[in-house]
Amino acid sequence: MRSAMRWGPGAALLSVPLVVALAGPWLAGEPDPRGVPYGSGTLLGTDFVGRDVGEQVLLGGRTVVVVALAATVLAYLAGTPLGVLAAMTGRRWLDELLMRPLDLLLAIPSLLLLILLAATAPPGALPLVVIVAVINLPEVARISRAAALEIAARPAMEAMRLQGESRWRRAAGYVGRSMLRTLLADLGVRVVGALYLVATASFLGVGVPPDASDWAVMVDRNRTGMFLQPWAVLVPALLVVTLSVGLNLLFDGVRRHREEAA
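^ thats the sequence. predicted structure below, dont judge the formating
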């Protein structure tokens, strides 16, 4: 009961934008003929080129959500093994070789790095996934390395080594499982950060066409007519904010539940 109360608000907030984003393209149906820009002929009116705002909202969330989740998964798949390897290598030079290039990436502001990488990459969702994953990679690797260093210094690791356990079994079997709580606590922040980067990229026109059905693009392209047709800006903006807040609340509730269970 108590855990449900912790997860409830986050899950409730998260369910709305997720349902709209994932089921929206099937619910949108065939596109309606374009009307007058910033008109009021439909439930939520029309956007800057006369398209139905409600239809664009249903079509515009999948890219933001899928790209952010895919980029987060890719960052963890690359960064976690890298951090564990750096922590368990036992060789200072190899640790430096693995971590120092990532420190250079950390020194560059994420928005600037996003623009620089996007300028050299072809447009599309897949390059955007890789770009956002690369931006998140240094922080994921650093957090994984810090967590693995503490775990690798425990007496249990020495006992496993004396018992003849392989390095792979110690790293994946013990260190990996012991890091789950730390990685779970970081996951909520990381997904929200990826969501911010994807929405920022779409808002700036990086990786997506200027008239794409995308929540962030809708906010950018319709903000000049906000006082004529506010729903074209407010609805996608509220969905992005609700998605971010819901993710944070949900992962915070999961983290607290795991701490109490431990």
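The chain has a mean pLDDT of 81.
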